[in-house]
Amino acid sequence: MANSKLLGLHVSPSSGTPIYRQIMDQIQRLVASKSLAIGDELPSVRILAEQHAINPMTVSKAYSALEVQGVLTRLRGKGMVVAKNKDSQLDLSQRLAQLDSTLEMLSLEAGQLNISDEQMMSYIEKFLKFHARKN
Amino acid sequence: MANSKLLGLHVSPSSGTPIYRQIMDQIQRLVASKSLAIGDELPSVRILAEQHAINPMTVSKAYSALEVQGVLTRLRGKGMVVAKNKDSQLDLSQRLAQLDSTLEMLSLEAGQLNISDEQMMSYIEKFLKFHARKN
DNA sequence: ATTACTGTATTAATTGAATAATACACTTGA
DNA sequence: TCAAGTGTATTATTCAATTAATACAGTAAT
């Protein structure tokens, strides 16, 4: 379609987590934060596949699963749009909770590396300052 | 063997990352932080496999790879011990750097969830306070 | 010597994920 | 009407990871 936002997805085939899951998770987050609003069109499976050098069917698998979850709606012959479903839009506390699994991982790693919470906090601060994004 | 520390490894078959890699990564961290000292014995492949309901060959694959990397040494007929190799022992700044890939992931997720650095920092603080470990 | 441990080599089978190449039904603008 | 665009079903193939069931050579204590 003509109008579809640049999603800026990060897809890494060697990352361990399946590609279709990476796509699902990231689109879900963009919808949760309303970076993708209800009705917004998504890039076609072929476009997205070419952008990330992956197979269109892999993108389709992600889109289909998101449709089952009620996050996307399929418009036959047109494409996928963000579903009219406010359950997919999360408030701040719900979105923060989505960081938990990664924080569990971070905490496990730090523990095994014998890094204290204080040392970790100050390092994260430095890290974020260096990898600054625009808020 | 009789003497082998409880490693407290966290193995999740459904985690996406291969089981043998999960084991490798965690043992490498324990050695880096000297939680496992040079000469320390590791649990036998059969014991570790039973503890986590996985296959002994999967553990063996992790051990072999760590031997190739110089982290472990195989004592034939006895078992695996931490190799006499100070390169595996990392100072604090090197250990902190090992958190980078998980921090990249955290930062990506937060960005897509439209969570600011400040909001994330204060949430992490709460999270760590709640999931307190002993430092 | 026997027993009970080590790690590992081997072979076979299974599973999940991804790719590739078509094909089809649908929509829409020219 | 036609051409170009949607997502998807289908079939076959490839690949990595894991499991399973043995088997073997080495060590060490009884």
Description:
2 copies of one chain form a homodimer. The first copy, chain A, is mainly alpha-helical. The first copy, chain A, has 2 domains: 67 residues, Arc Repressor Mutant, subunit A, CATH 1.10.10.10; 32 residues. Chain A has 6 helices and 2 strands. Chain A has a two-stranded antiparallel ribbon with strand order 1-2. In chain A, strand 1 and strand 2 form a beta hairpin. In chain A, helix 2 crosses helix 3. The first copy, chain A, is elongated and about 55 Å long. The model of chain A has no long low-confidence stretch (mean pLDDT 94). At the A-B interface, helix 1, helix 4, helix 5 and helix 6 of A face helix 1, helix 4, helix 5 and helix 6 of B. Chain A binds a DNA duplex (30 and 30 nucleotides) through helix 3.
Write the layout of secondary structure elements.
2 copies of one chain form a homodimer.
Chain A: H1 19-32, H2 45-51, H3 56-68, E1 72-75, E2 79-82, H4 92-97, H5 100-112, H6 117-130
The structure holds a DNA duplex (30 and 30 nucleotides).
Summarize the structure.
The first copy, chain A, has 135 residues and is mainly α. The first copy, chain A, has helices at 19-32, 45-51, 56-68, 92-97, 100-112, 117-130; strands spanning 72-75, 79-82. Chain A has a two-stranded antiparallel sheet.
